[in-house]
Every structure is written in C-alpha cells, then in structure tokens.
Amino acid sequence: MCIWRVSADNISFSDETIMNLLYYNNQVATFMNSNSSKGIAGCKGMGKTFLLKAKRIKLQNESNNSVLILPKDRMVDASGSLPLDNVHISFLSSYGNWRSLWISCIAIYLLSQEEFEDLRRNELEVNNCKKYLSDFTLNLLEEKHIGVFSVLHKIIAINDKAILRLIVKDSTILFDIVQKIQSQVAMFIDKLEEPFNADFFRIPGANNSTQGKYNYSIWAYAQLAFADAVNTLFASRNHIKIYYSIRKEALYRGEEIAVDYSKIRDNIISLEYTREDLYKMFHGYIKNEDPENLCSPIDVIENPIKALIGVDRISHNSGESEPIWNYLYRHTFQRPRDIMEMCKSIHDHIVKNADVKNNIKDRTRVLRDWINELSKMECNSYLFFLDPFMKCQGDISYKEQIIDFIKELPTDVLNYELIKEHCCSKNDQKLDDECGECENIHYFSSLYNVGLIGRIHKSTHTLEYSCKIKHMGQSEFLTNSSSLPKEQLYYLHPGLANIAKSEREISGKNFLLCPFNSNDLDQTIPKDKIRYMIDSANSLLGNRSDKNVFLSSTGRDIGDKRKEIKRLLESMGYTVFAYEDPDFPSMDNEEYSDRQKGKTQDHCIDVMLRCKHIVYLFDKTFGGRYVGEKYRCYYEKEQVIKITPSVSFMEYLVAKENHKNVKVYVLKDVDIARGEYIANDCSEKFKSKVVQDNRVFEQLGYFNSLLNGTWYDTYNDIDDLKQYIIKQFNIPSI
Fold first, then answer.
1. What DSSP element (H or E) covers 54?
2. Is residue 467 very low, low, confident or very high in pLDDT (cuts 50, 70, 90)?
3. Where residue 210 falls among pLDDT bands split at 50, 70, 90?
4. What is the 3-state secondary structure (H, E, C) of 512-560?
5. Which of 287, 290, 288 is nearest to 299 (CA)?
6. Sheet of 548-553, strands arranged across
7. Beta strand pairing status for 185-189 and 68-70?
8. Quick one: CA torsion of 698, 703, 706, 710, rounded to 10 degrees?
9. Based on C-alpha coordinates, what's the Rg of the chain?
10. What is the pLDDT of residue 125?
11. Which end of the chain has less Cβ packing within 10 Å, N or C?
C-alpha cells in the first residue's frame, strides 16, 4: 500500500494505520491530549482533517464506548456548499447573529439525538420550555439530524428573515436545556469555511460579478462565531467537547470582530511545522512504507531520502549538487500536504516506473520535472485562495494581477534597483518617487507579505547571508502598503518562479533562473553565491540598453586596433566602454600593489556588467594576470581553476555566466599557433613565433572544451575584423 495520502477525506473508522503516521510536535500534542473543546486553525494543506480523524480514533480507543461520539455515521461533520442570498447576507453580516445561530444549531443537533430524548421531552413538556420556543425550532427538535451542518442547511433553506430572528432568539432557551446534559459527548466538526467558499472565492472563467460577493467578514464570522459559540456553551462543562477546524486566515482580524477574542484564541491551536518537523514527519512515513514502495529499503533508518529515491543528492546545471531533502523543502509552502504531493509523485513516477527507477539520470530528470510542476500547481492554488483577502483594482482577481505582473520579471533573483524599476513601471511612477507615497498596488511588498518573495539578509553580527521568507500562515493581507524591507537581493519562491517562466515562454520571452539555490531556507548562503546573484542582477540592469558595448582585450599591444573598433561601433550608434575612458582608474601604474591592481580590474568588470554586449579581441599576448577578489569565484571552478586567468579572460568568464551577448574574435595566426602547440603535446617548452605566452593557448583551449561550445571568428587583419563587427552589430536591434 502506498503510504502517501494527499487527502484525509477517505480515512475511515477502521483506519488505525494513521496513528502510526501521526507526528507530534507541541501543537499536535496539545490538541491530541486535550480533554476539553479545542479548535485547530491552519491554512489549507496543514493536515487539519487528518488530525481531527486521528483525535477521534484515539478517543474511540480510549473511551471504551463511555463517550457518545458524533457524528455517528461519519468520522467528522462536514458540509458542501451553502448558497446564501441577500436575505441571509444581510442577517449574517452581524457577528452576534452568527454566534446565536451556531448555538441553536449545536443545541438542536445534540438534543435531537435519541440518547437525549428523555431530557428533550422533560424540558419541553414537563418544564414547559415548549411555550418559549418557536414552532420552527420545535419542529427541528423533533427531526433527526446527521450533523450540525444539516441543521444549518435546513434553517438557511427557509430563506425567511423572521424565521432567522426566531432561531437566534431561541438560542437562549436552547442554551439552558443543553447545560443539563450529563453524559460524556464528543463532536468532530471539520472545514467550517467550506459551505461559504463557493461564493467567497472567485471561480476561474465565471462571471466575476456573481462571484466573491461575500466580504471577508461574513466568511470569518462563520468560523469565529462557531468557536465563540463552543466556548459559550461548554466553557465550564468539559464532559461535552467539540473538536473543530477553521482556516487560519479567519483569525486575521479576530480582535476587531469578536469581543471575547482572547478567550476564543486560547482554545484554538494554530498548526505550524518547522523544517525539522516536516523532515521527521517525512521520515516517519518512509519507515512505515512497504519495502516494495521504496527504491532502497536498506537505507530506511539511516537515510530516508535515499530509501525513497535511491539517491540523496540532486545535481543542477550550475555544476553544484544539493541534498534532495533541501530541494524538496524549498519547493514547498512548508505544509504537510506539499510533502505528500511530492512523495506521491515520486512513488507514482519513479518508484513504480521500472525504467526510471533503474536509471539514475532519468530518476533525476523525472524528480526535477515533477517537483517543479507541483510547486507551480500549488502556487497557482495559493494565489487563488489569497484572492478574497487582497484588495485589487477593478474587477480583476489578485491572482490575475500578479500573473500579469510577473510576466515582466526576467529572472527569479532581483536586487532593489530592479524591484523599484519594475514596480514603478507597472504603476506609472518615476524611479525617484517615494514608495510610501504611492497609492497603487505595491506588488513586491504584497508578495513578500504572503511568502511568495523572500529576501536575502546579511546579519550585522555574523556578516553571513541567509534567506528570510514568510511561511504560509504568517501572511499579512496588504496590497497598498510599502512594507518590503530593503536588502541587496530578493528571490521568488520556486513555485512563483516556475509560473513566471511558463508565462514568459508563452509570450516568447526568456526567463533566467538563477543557477544557484537562492532560497535554501534556514541555511547560510556562501558569499561566492551572493557574488553571483548580485552580478546577475546588475547584469540584467545593464541588459536594458541594447546599445552598450564593452571592449575587452589586452591593451598595450593592440591599442590602435582597439581605437579603430571603438570608433567603428560608435559610428554605428553604440556606446562603447573601455579601460582607456577618462573615468577609468589607470591600469598601467607599475607602482600599484596587487590589491590596488585588483580593485582596478574589478572596476572594469563592474562596468562590463552594465553593458549588454562584450567584444573580446583575442590576440598574441596574455596581458595582466587577474589579481582581484570580487570575481574570484568565477574561475574557482573545476573546469577553469587550472587556467591562469588574465583580466580579459575574467571579463569573458563573468560575461558568459551573466548571459551577456559575447562576441570573440581571435587573430588567425594565434589560432594556427595553437594547432602547433597541440601538435607538440602542449609542452611547456614549446616556443611559438607568434604567441608570447603559452597561457594564451590554455585560455583559447578553454573555449573549445565547453560542451555547448563558444563560437569565435578568426580574422587576418583590422579590415577583416571590421567586416565581422559590421556584419554582427550593424542591425536595428540585437
């Protein structure tokens, strides 16, 4: 049997296996061990239904039939859609009416049970409560009901405000009668928000004028008022317990809605799971999985990831590898459901597919494809459920506005300048306008407040970098407030990044995914990765201008050639940046220390990143050796580390890593000389009549060693080179 259950709806009375899968953190333990009424609050996907059913099974096993557990025919009382019209909406816009209505529904359901028939008869006939109750309520008391929701449905079906008022008025008498129940009772009520979702959430493709007609208050009232009613009915009578679930978003404005909110809040447990919680939960599931549903059962205790998938690390295009658990976790919204979805897909598409299971490369590919697809799917779902809580412009949903906005984002890692530029562009604001004074949607603040954008924060104490992103459940539903903390770098949640990538591909636009893990939650980020991310963001700013060209080469030996190419490009309308420019610090001062030379070299690369194009003239000399610090990480890679980098070669490496339009032009005599160097077994003793330093051959050889190739053109003389430049740059837009 596959252990991964995405939905708890099909868990039945006899399903004892869930008790072996239950993970106890502080919140779960408090709920499971509670002997009084308790609510659990959580965002969608936090496992509320699973916990309610586990609590019921635990109570069944411990009570020995001494407790009346309701409902009798189902694990939990839940409801489908409950359509409300204007009569209901007007009446239920009062929190007090909701509270009284729930008291009546709970009391009627309890008193309609055959176990309390004697009490009901005695109170109605002997104690003459009958004369104080409306005929409608009396009729409901004589009927059989399968749950609290069934009572609510019957009341709403009348569609009569006068009847609704009578039910509310009757709640006082019903309250007094219920207080006389002496038996042990436990009720389980799930998904209190669900009856009202159909109208609260806009339905894709539907006419929005008929969707989302409830304001936040009615949706929240229904849930908070139920919790309030439970407290009112049974605060001092622990022999009657109600265990229920509500959405955490309903608590968002609880202090504004309910007078006794602090008392209500004390009896509601908010579900939260840390990274460690989810890992232990994941491990517990794997330990209970059948061996045939694992790739490597022998590793089930020591290495659960390897037990499930057969490997415990995943390689990325950047060349680095990452623990698979980190990879899974950072694609989640920190919910149990996400882990279940991912592991169910691993089971279905890897473990149960023999061809994939037996091929490591296929396994990694399928894993990556499904995790990315699931994170995109869950992010789309999350955006949909955020819609009612977010103030939007006109009759467009929050999800539609966000997707329209992220289509314009070229990458998943941005600096503050890119963020300001995109937000101002969308809101028709000037870059120097103050964000706090803008009355439009603050897109990045809004996404940050709901955990879809994170920030990379540098600690003032340790000077280390780490990711900060809000977990689902910490959301603040703000769209018109500028509240994004200022940082060097920000990143999109992988789910949002995958949506942006898909949307841009549909529009024929590129989306540059950062090759490094920009959201490795709870982990310190190495400084070399930060360097790459900063450069990538700066590079994107530079790519805004199609007409900026950086001229790279050794300098002293081909100074005249550089001048001619610079003049040619400028005559074609390009702005050319070169180290000869007056605002560049001197590159030729022999008295400079290596530190001073390094700063000057790094300045060159800084300028290069502000350009979209780089022209690399590869000639006879090696030039100056790179001694800078800022970009050292670019050549400290396995395939580059053996090559002594010149300044020009470093400019090339950084440009290629940051997706610049790089054109390499090699003097033909140098290319021929490299052939002679190879023919002499690349001997250190080889002396070329053309090239002064064999390190030139090493750098030229690097181009040919790349798997994807780096195409370069060879030229004979300056006229030949000019023709290449004209051919490749003399077009309207590159």
1. helix 48-63
2. confident
3. very low
4. ECCCCCCCCCCCEECHHHHHHHHHHHHHHHHCCCCCEEEEEECCCCCHH
5. 287
6. 575-577, 548-553, 613-618, 661-667, 712-715
7. parallel
8. 180
9. 34
10. 84
11. N
End-to-end CA distance of the chain: 57
Distances (CA, A) of 422 to 406, 443, 489, 534: 9, 9, 14, 17
Q: Give the contacts of 734 (CB within 8 A, at least 6 positions apart).
A: 546, 612, 613, 661
Q: Which residue type is seen at 329?
A: Y
* Longest alpha-carbon distance in the chain: 120
Structure tokens at 500: 């942006």
Question: Which residue, 149, 137, 12, is CA-closest to 74?
Answer: 12
- The single-letter DSSP state of residue 190 is -
The region of weakest confidence among 266-275, 362-371, 685-694 is 685-694
CA distance 505 to 323: 29
Q: Are 635 and 641 in contact (CB under 8 A)?
A: yes
pLDDT score of 209 more than 60: no
Pick from 445-459, 580-594, 694-708: least confident? 580-594
Residue with tokens 């009958």: 130
Q: What's the number of CA atoms in the CB half-sphere (13 Å) around residue 271?
A: 33
Which residue stretches of 392-489 are H helix?
398-406, 416-426, 443-449
Nearest by Cα to 377 from 325, 331, 444, 326: 331
C-alpha dist (Å) from residue 195 to 53, 150, 152, 192, 199: 20, 11, 10, 7, 9
> Do 398 and 392 form a contact (C-beta atoms < 8 A)?
yes
| Torsion (CA) 136, 142, 147, 150 in degrees, nearest 10 | -40
pTM for the model: 0.80
User: In this predicted model, what pLDDT tens digit does every residue of 596-613 receive, in sequence order?
Assistant: 788 888 888 888 988 999
Q: DSSP secondary structure string, 475-515?
A: ----SS---PPP-SEEEE-HHHHHHHHHHHHHTT---B--S
Alpha-carbon torsion 57, 59, 61, 65, what sign? negative
Say which amino acid occupies 299: D
Beta bridge partners of 576: 549
d(CA 48, CA 199): 22
Token reading at 190: 């799930």
User: Which is it for strands 185-189 and 240-247: parallel, antiparallel or unpaired?
Assistant: parallel
Would you say 499 and 379 are in contact if contact means Cβ atoms under 8 Å apart? yes
- Beta strands 489-492; 313-315: pairing state: unpaired
For residue 415, the 8-state DSSP code is E
pLDDT band at 472 (very low <50, low <70, confident <90, very high): confident
Q: CA 514, CA 504: separation in Å to the nearest integer?
A: 16
CA-based nearest residue to 58, from 41, 37, 42, 34: 34
Indicate the range of 43-57, 513-527, 599-613 predicted with least confidence.
Answer: 513-527
Of 630, 672, 675, the closest CA to residue 654 belongs to: 630
CA 114 vs CA 72, 120, 150, 604: distances in Å: 12, 9, 17, 86
Nearest to 680 by CA among 699, 697, 700, 705: 697
DSSP state of 630: T
Q: Which two tokens stand for residue 202?
A: 């806009």
Whole-number Cα distances in Å, 217 to 44, 257, 685: 19, 8, 83
The residue behind tokens 């290596």 is: 594
Extract the tokens encoding 142: 């004589």
- The DSSP symbol for 574 reads -
Domains of the chain in start order, with CATH, are 86-270 (no CATH), 275-384 (no CATH), 397-538 (no CATH), 544-729 (3.40.50.450)
